[in-house]
Design goal:
- The protein contains 3 helices and 10 strands, in the order αββααββββββββ.
- By secondary structure, the chain is an alpha+beta fold.
- The protein has a single domain, classed as Immunoglobulins (Immunoglobulin-like, Sandwich), CATH 2.60.40.10.
Amino acid sequence: MKSKLILILFVFLCSFTITHDYYLSTTSIKWVPSKQQVQLTSRFFLEDIEALMQKETRQKVVFLPDSNQAKIDAFVKDFYLNNLTIKIDGEQQEIAYLGREYKENDLLVVYAEVVFPAKTFKTLDVNASFLIDFLTGQQNIVHLITPSKKKSFLLTNKKTAFDFTL
């Protein structure tokens, strides 16, 4: 009887999936004048990106290990570039997607850069709408780092953009 109870309890507990109660991404935007670059690093919960890809492709997909690396690479690149825009001094910048990796078994880290030939800028406009239309309550924190200033911005479905003046 005791072993049946343990088995039933085990099956019951295994039937629940563990999900996180908050929806958050972080993006670091670092201006490196010596390299004439804006370096971008974004972190997302892996299960959120996996769920988005499954919804959009209507196919079962597994990250870590990749069930289909080429499709996942293409999806993550498109997702990233379609949800982030950067303007420097009012001019739209081309974002170069560099790649992705997994951290701590539950994070997707995406790397990108903007090559900017000027030694300085006056204004930076950023729009980061990652997962806003997909997850209710999604928040995107953007950390902006320049040689002289550090500032963080909280973006939500009501505010997906910010302007920064150096």
